[in-house]
Amino acid sequence: MSLQKNSLEITDLHKRLFEYLLSHGMQIITAIGILIAGLFISKWIVNVIQKWLTKKNFEPQLKTLILRVLKILILGLFLIMASGQLGVQITPLLAGIGVAGVGISLAMQGLLGNIVAGLTIIFTKPFTIGEYIELLGVYGQVKDISLFTTTLIHADNSHVIVPNRKIVGEILHNYGKIRQLELSVNVSYDTDLKLAIQNISEILNSNPKIVKELKPIIGISSFEDSSIKIAIKPWVPVEYFPVAANDINLSIVEKFREKGIKIPFPQREIRLLNN
Question: How distant, in Å, are the alpha carbons of 101, 105, 111, 113, 115 from that of 108?
Fold first, then answer.
């Protein structure tokens, strides 16, 4: 009896399905046609908008977001139109989508905050990829700016991932794509200071890692107990910042030895007075 009952139910289901297809066949075909048209139209519109955004030099992240949202909206519109052909009530559906959207937005406040902050960074451009920034106690060269996070890279190739909502509204130190080295060298008090500064200037001019458009600062910074300290502050691209100091210091030592310029070690003069 159970098998016979199941067989009758299946037969009845097939009959109802056949009757539905027979009575709503044109609506189903029309709905499928609307969906297919929506796919082609959305693809065509996205391609046109993509060419326009590329021509206007939009940021890649912003361009990707605009194209994705546009495609979803177009496909959603055609999906609603197709649902209407199948007898689905559009008004309750739109109301349900609105309620669901409010619930999703409340549940994803942090995520949406990152997106808004990411769009703010992309539009206002407080920094760009390749620049060196410092904020919130972290620092590094900007490697990537996405809608959700900004990635910084340190000199040791480690990465710092900063949520975008933590960046917007905070104090930001942007070094740009060049940084100033702060070096120094000590020379004895009997050194020809003009000769020493001239040799340092020649070293900086011959170093390919130094930015030649910005004049370096070279001069006496302080008088020590047993030496005179000469400050050396050239400008270098961010990518050369970790290694340029080593090259300059090595060149200074070699040059001073060649010219007989003495770099004194710390010393004190003690005098014994006999009564």
Answer: 10, 5, 5, 8, 11
